Amino acid sequence: QNPKTSAIVKQLVAEGNAGELQKYFGSRMEFGTAGLRAAMGAGISHMNDLTIIQTTQGFCRYLEKNFSDLKKRGVVIGFDARAHPSSGGSSKRFARLAANTFISQGVPVYLFSDITPTPFVPYTVTHLKLCAGIMVTASHNPKQDNGYKVYWENGAQIISPHDKGISQAIEENQEPWPQAWDDKLIDSSLLLHDPYATVNKEYFKDIQKQCFHRNINKETNLKFVHTSVHGVGHKFVQLAFKAFDLSPPFAVPEQRDPDPEFPTVKYPNPEEGKGVLTLSFALAEKDGAKIILANDPDADRLAVAEKQESGEWKVFSGNELGALLGWWIFTCWKNHNRDTCAIKDVYMLSSTVSSKILRAIALKEGFHFEETLTGFKWMGNRAKQLMDQGKAVLFAFEEAIGYMCCPAVLDKDGVSAAVITAEMASFLATRNLSLSQQLKAVYDEYGFHITKASYFICHDPKVIQQLFDNLRNFDGKNTYPKSCGRFKVSGIRDLTTGYDSSQPDQKAILPTSKSSQMITFTFANGGVATMRTSGTEPKIKYYSELCAPPGNSDVEQLKKELDELVNALEEHFFQPEKNNLQRKTE
Question: Which of 137, 395, 506, 528 reaches 20 to 30 Å from 414, CA-CA?
Fold first, then answer.
């Protein structure tokens, strides 16, 4: 019933444009553990009023089946500032339609009245003990995209089998219910609640439990620049600084307010490197700020840059910031917990494609480290299991600039990560140390961990399948590569098939998934490289790392060795020319 998407389809029918119609209606968006992520537009392959109604109807029926008290507890729904004028879609509209679906079935809905960071949704699920949460966002995807991210009652993103159950329920509930389109009905409903004020108060109270140096924060002369990259983060990072008694950071004015066009950046993704930070560098130079904090548009990720002695800016990788925050959060914990027995209940987590630096710190300091599959859905669910067993999960991170620094949010959170990074930098400044110097100190103490990650773009699923099949049948059927150029392969773990050469029964311990590709190679020189497909983008990604024991400080030699390993990986395993793969461009 949306006049804009309806008109688009009618126009294509009038033109007899079968090719475009096939694109729009050929296949339904797949609902996976990451929920939905697709372009906004007409047809069942896109995000629009109809597909949101259908998805929410399925989700509602699935929740009714799983929770006898759904009508007592309810769900929370949040949204970012994305909008797509040509199809009439926007995050706010989708959120209202989703709310209307639940309310029509007598389910209470806590719908935020304004834009919020993604982490506020899992926070609200936990804080108000709700059955589920929905966040309408496409995070840092291109401007035409939107998404529908789902959290379970434990405050973590859903994992299998919920995705399959919800997907099936969507299939069974495709016809819109009688009042599905009329979202105005919710405004007069007693089942509609607005959690905005409460959550804003409680969240900032909860993150203050991670504030350990209020006096230093009040006195520091260190200046910070913050950019929300046309997303939702500005207001919330300002409030977080206030909660920690830090002077507010300078906001990049051109990028401060939400703008669904993302006019100043090619990609609204701080992970893409210095291009996104150009305006931040200029403002920092003007105002004499040493550190830049950049959130992605839904404020669940954080990138950090620091001005070096040379005048150059260093943008920290996700692994480097993970090392710093892991060191800092453990140090703060240690200073406040003199009981040496307590350390046996302390945990940190990271995903299997992230740096193993936390493992090195854990080994030396005596706490536990666990690795999970890629993505915060795994770390959030594992953290909750551990917390339910009385363990303290201090920190979790993944290399894609995602950090969970505060147990009140079981997902990555760029707001708390930004303010905790600012406190860490302020503390180090009192010792005349920069973040870069402290990072070197961490590596000196626990061993250098050099990482390099990138990706190739490939729009053809057949080519991707062939590339991975080739790796599984490298020297004849069912044989993996024994070497990569001059580098000898010493171990292989394939989480698509469940094979792991290092296990006595050759079966992988981590869960496997046939629907995504992921192979990890261990090399005789101590290097590790993982190749995997992305769940949300047409990319084949790789992650590589060389770990040296403490005392091996020839960093340049380690970097050279890793560069050569990565070149061999690209040449022999990816074969970009043969497979017509497009390299990542800056």
Answer: 528
